[in-house]
Amino acid sequence: MKPIRMVDLAGQYEKIKEEVDSAIAEVMNTTAFINGPAVQRFQKNLEEYLGVKHVIPCANGTDALQVAMMALDLKPGDEVITTSFTFIATAEVIALLHLTPVLVDVEKDTFNISIEAIRKAITSKTKAIVPVHLFGQSVPMEELMALAKEFNLYVIEDACQSIGSDYIFADGSTKKTGAIGHVGCTSFFPSKNLGCFGDGGAIFTNDDALAEKLRVVVNHGMKVRYYHDEIGVNSRLDSIQAAVLDVKLKNLDSYIDARRSAADFYDRVLGTNSKLIVPARYEKSRHVFHQYTLVANGFDRTKLIAFLQEKGIPAMIYYPVPLHLQKAYIDPRYKQGDFPNTEWLSENVFSLPMHTELDEEQLQYITGSILEFLNK
Question: Domain 9-246, what fold?
Fold first, then answer.
């Protein structure tokens, strides 16, 4: 059996090596390393894939969130609502821009932000909502957009874990996550479902005026060279990363299918064990399984993780400390116990290997080892 990894980037690369190497060589031969043809080509192909008018490539997913907030002219003191159960970058950029992060609880089953909790948190200072499509599954976007319209709020989608996921509206139509709100953001970190060989990110919007401003902000606030109309940043996706991403974009749907197949296997074998709560699948979302995250129901997950490690099986905890309990974000507005679902999940979730290269032998070994531990 092949070694089991949380993410098998080497195995994935082997299958597309010839095409990736050729794409990188083309960039090297043209020496157009910044904003070259490879970036423009990937941008257009991603716009077509997402069904969105504008894709603005940038340096990473954190920059994407920050640039989005800058382009929307959010001001210090403005409140931005987001979830406490997410990676730190979501709140980090809010704090860096001297905005006020307003954290709310999540749904216990889907791990995603609670629409009811958002409604209760809205004040006269609220200007934006940042829903995080956690682990690859969409937030209830139709309800969220209606709520945002009611209170005249921006929606900035954090789609860093959900690229390729479809949201299904009440009328049966679908849109990709990241292409529903006023602006969407993603990361191309290597372990993402669509990942490059370094850092990368992108911002999406259907708003022509906003797209123009986003392009200015990522380029030092500059529309005409050396004339700076806005306060901006330097955030670019380099051509080599774009070339890699363009190759992988052609395979993204098959990558998603492979992840969903692995998740189906996990569900079948582990879903009948009362000590495990397998990931809920929201009926209006096509889950793309950036992570396969279970809940330990009445046992010590750290002992299971140690047992699996002894057997050569990696497992991770995303995320062990919710944002409202992180030292850097301690705030008198929040205390332990305020977000019971978030805190319960942080204490009990664990994630299994999830990637495009998992085979049945590996999946049988992983699930068999888990059941061995639980039946001891």
Answer: Aspartate Aminotransferase; domain 2 (3.40.640)
Compute the CA torsion angle 83, 85, 90, 94 (nearest 10 deg): 50
Map tokens 């690369």 to a residue.
13
pLDDT at 224 over 90: no
> What is the residue extent of each domain of the chain?
9-246, 251-374
Angle at 32 between CA 26 and CA 33, to 5 degrees: 95
| pLDDT tier at 87, thresholds 50, 70, 90 | very high
Model confidence over 183-212: pLDDT tens digits? 999 999 999 999 999 999 999 999 999 999
Spatial CB neighbours of 96, under 8 Å, sequence gap ≥ 6: 66
pLDDT confidence tier of residue 223, bands split at 50, 70 and 90 = confident
Beta bridge partners of 224: 227
Contact 215, 55 (CB under 8 A): no
Q: Following DSSP, what letter does each residue of 129-186 receive, concatenated?
A: EE-B-GGG----HHHHHHHHHHHT-EEEEE-TTTTT-EEE-TTS-EEETTSSSSEEEE
What span, in angstroms and rounded, lies between the C-alpha atoms of 29 and 228?
Answer: 32
Looking at the DSSP assignment, which residues form a beta bridge with residue 158?
132, 185
**Secondary structure of residue 277 in the 3-state scheme:** strand
- Phi then psi for 126, rounded to 5 degrees? -70, 130
CB 259 within 8 A of CB 193: yes
- Cβ(346)–Cβ(320) below 8 Å: yes
Q: In what helix (H) or strand (E) does residue 371 lie, and over which residues does it extend?
A: helix 360-374
Specify which residues 57 forms β-bridges with: 202
Helix, strand, or coil (residue 259): helix
The architecture of the domain spanning 251-374 is Alpha-Beta Complex (3.90)
DSSP state of 59: S
User: What are the tens digits of pLDDT across the range 111-164?
Assistant: 999 999 999 999 999 999 999 999 999 999 999 999 999 999 999 999 999 999
Sorting pLDDT into bands at 50, 70 and 90, what band is 373? very high
Decide if 167 contacts 285 (C-beta within 8 A). Answer: yes
Cα–Cα dist 297/37, whole Å:
51
Q: Is 214 exposed, middle or buried (0-12, 13-18, 19+ CB in 10 A)?
A: buried
Answer yes or no: is pLDDT of 107 > 90.
yes
Q: What is the DSSP-derived secondary structure letter of residue 161? A: T
